[in-house]
């Protein structure tokens, strides 16, 4: 089986090659005028400075955890953690560096044609996308190879399982910091800049006279590009790892444990290839529909994956191979159909998210209409849509759980989620093109490019709002579908330790039940349920605080340098970037540690009150509680925010009075409210859920170790 | 034991006597000038007309369900349903009729002194409060007496249990219609009136030139008084009934089943008396603190209840009587301490809600401060507070579950909730005084009473915002704490039917498990979790739609009758009331039926896909899913809305620029957003949760019957 592993590693390496090759192509295109390059350089410098500071701050936490893991669990686990953290950081770092160079080239290409702008922006996105999927796959597969082949650990041994979980933890930790820090930075800049610029001073978005405008463009890169990349990297890693852990448990002792542990990675490898091929299908048709062009890529990737997974499963698992997990019997063919379920879920989430956030449908239009009667009704309707938008995705996840479970039990659900995430390369590409076009629009505005260019970048940007919401819905949807998988990993681990209490004395006499009749289970559900709310509240407050600081800074600059508004004096862009950098780093620490520490603290409190069994029951329930509310909080925030943003765009397209009308002002308020919803609090819920789960798994490992 | 029942009935009757006596005292006070009486008459007429229409609409649904219950279960159950529905309707009807007469008298008394205004308004509220508690207690106790003593059913028999559950269903059904219909009416008027009056026309709230102003005042009565009364009536009934059902199951066959079924009603009876005494402690001290005056009443009631429950428990249960339910052994004394837990939870919820919605603390002040930088930051900070405000109440509920369960198992939790709800008379009094003072302010403004009077009524109104949030937090908190009780009723019923499958053939071979490892349990949790979101979204949309209709109607009147703004022409108040009546009735139907039909439809779908056992598991989990998200949705909406409202009041008190400043405009937007949050969608979640639970219990009964 070792050579299959090498093949999977080759697929991962191919995505790196694609990245290098495409980066060269993007960088070779025309970077525009000197003025454009000057602006791009300022964005680049700010983004680089922020990311360095963020990584430094996270590195301190990371080193502490590395040392803790080394002493609590051992070197392979600590190194796993480091691999996850470093690769996640690398994906964000490289992606962002491409993004800050592609922005100006997209602006330049957009002066010529929509197709040209789309092509550069999408390829820049695809680099990030394939790096995310490729590095994640490489991290897991290479480390698995090292552990099992070079160091000789048995694939289903505790060391391998714990090391993989630690790898997931490393990815999760970077992810939550990057999502939150980046989210606070980008939305502090966006909200603050809009309030003081658009609303108070009456100057358009990205006007060079606004001292927050460079910070806003920096934010797109550090939040929407680097933050999102870390998030999806983490989702990918945790999903694959959890599936492998389940395989190691379910097939332990049998003769196919290696194949079943390799199978999820093989799905990932195959879909890296189909994603690369899919990127070449993204091409503007005669209808000039940008969404249509992107859909072509997604559909191509999906269909190719559907085709390729059949022989892959037949060859690696065998279509008729009969397996049994718990009470459920299934075959290799059942697993293939579980993969199909994952693909169908992805497709449905894309379609539903487009419905809720696209300008062509009822939800966005209803918010635009409500703007006519004022700020209040805009926000009310936006909140109504955000609440409503959770229903269909939840039903899809419910349906997927039922079907995948019916096909192949819990392992079937795990394969469905893995296949869903295997498309991450393509889905992230859709998302990462957003900040590039957003930046391109900003550069066009600041460099005074012709109105037409701005129109082209705006059209790209509006699609970007939808694709950004799609990715977030996809990430959180996979978390919902994967909830049972992570919970199963927890219960199976617990069962294993309790059954072998002679080796793991801490678990002697532990008899944790997870029935809803057990009050500690209900306590755990409530406590888990509370985390996304508290976390969301803290994140929103942080953005509000950062935005207020920006408003005051900009007001101060306008007052001290009256020449700014006349265009005779240059605003001090650097100060706004600096201020946000400090604010974001400071504000991200406490909420990021909330999901890391909660499971541990909660476990020991319940243990102290009611004993070990109750504490294990409550902790397990907490893992599901956090996903039950987290799913709804995250979907409502990300879809609602996207809808608000596009309702504003819909009005700017000339509906309900267009730009400058009272309806437009109300829509700007809604957009402002939606900003931290969709780009800070909402997306950070996904890594938060994962961290809670991973920390619980690690806690079990640590308790077993002592 | 029969004479104890009569004693409890006497307590219930006493509350009616208190109501009659206090009503006469309130009506005897000065109703003010002719102009004031004319305005009050218009409000009265509108409120009456709305309530008649609402009851007619609900009656149609009610009659259909009555017939269905008669054929599906039998006459005692159908009559139980009717008793619950009619008494709930009566509580709202009488309360509202007092409220629309007390408003003008409060305004008149407020021209003289704050103490006088407070006295009338609070007594009016106390009438509603004690009617709610008294009628609820009477309904349950008299029907229980009739069934067990006159008709001779054994207290723990299925007929009695099902009839009591049906009584709860009747109350719940009225409650959700009243909460939603009333909520849509009142907030449609409030939001629409504010948008077009305050924001567009620049006239103050309650200005007689605003054609929506009478509708706004009507709304306070039909929503905040009648709707709230129905909600708390339902919460009271369902809690007491669920506790009695649990007692009938846990103590069936033993010799104390009658005592244990009577015990929850006896707690209710005792606390009616302590609540009545408590109302006499509400008196303005030298500090002129209104909240202080109300606190005196609450504290007096709480302390007296603490004292009285000891001998009551000793006498009815016996302090040393040893009991055992499941694995948990406990004594009468344990049950007393569970009651204490309920009282402590109530006290803590009051304090925390005051912290989150009072003008003296960080949360409200942070929203006020965020208003300085605009509409967007106001709403962001309001949402942040609304998310954050869920944490402490959730922790309190978690703590209460752990302590009460530790003391006396699930039955202990049931007694804790019952005791909590036993204070409903006092708590509802705090709340129901809100709409009276709100109306008094409106009448003062419209009748052109001196500025001072308006200041007095405004001071009362600000406290009303907090007490309204308190009641809602209290209702939803009890639902959270009671979740396990209702779930236990469901599982115990199911267990009973499955164990006696020879009598109940439908349950043959049913083996439903509720472990979180069961995928159908997770499916149920997600589906339950989705209901509050979908429901909230529909309710918010309905308010937005009603408000937009009002905005257009008012604009039309301003345009057609230019004399209105000059004060020379009288607006057509009736048309706004009419329009809202129709809108509210129409919009309330679909969302109200959502929780009624969802459990049934969901059960049969899962049954069809995966069989009975899976369907029963999923349905049970759904009952907890709806409370896990519902708790957070409801608390965040009600506390957040209250905070927004008082942030506006805080600015109007002269902070951050005061009335008319930009900060004030932003705060008005926040208040508008908070309106449907706190008065429509949020509070309706509580009856929604209860209905889902009750319908599931009835579904079991129906399935057992066939």
UniProtKB/TrEMBL annotation, chains A, B:
Cofactors (names): Mg(2+)
EC number: 7.1.3.1
Transmembrane segments: 6-27, 55-73, 79-100, 120-147, 159-178, 236-254, 260-282, 294-314, 334-356, 395-428, 473-492, 504-527, 589-610, 616-639
GO CC entries: endomembrane system; plasma membrane
Any one Gene Ontology molecular-function term assigned to this protein's record: inorganic diphosphate phosphatase activity
Membrane topology annotation: Multi-pass membrane protein
Keywords, in A-Z order: Cell membrane, Hydrogen ion transport, Ion transport, Magnesium, Membrane, Translocase, Transmembrane, Transmembrane helix, Transport
Catalytic activity reported: diphosphate + H2O + H(+)(in) = 2 phosphate + 2 H(+)(out)
Subcellular location: Cell membrane; Endomembrane system
Site entry: Determinant of potassium independence: 468
Keyword match Membrane: yes
Main location: membrane
Top-tier EC class: translocase
Keyword Ion transport: yes
Reported function: Proton pump that utilizes the energy of pyrophosphate hydrolysis as the driving force for proton movement across the membrane. Generates a proton motive force.
Family: Belongs to the H(+)-translocating pyrophosphatase (TC 3.A.10) family. K(+)-insensitive subfamily.
PANTHER family (UniProt xref): K(+)-INSENSITIVE PYROPHOSPHATE-ENERGIZED PROTON PUMP (PTHR31998)
Subunit structure, interactors included: Homodimer.
Identification of the protein by name: K(+)-insensitive pyrophosphate-energized proton pump
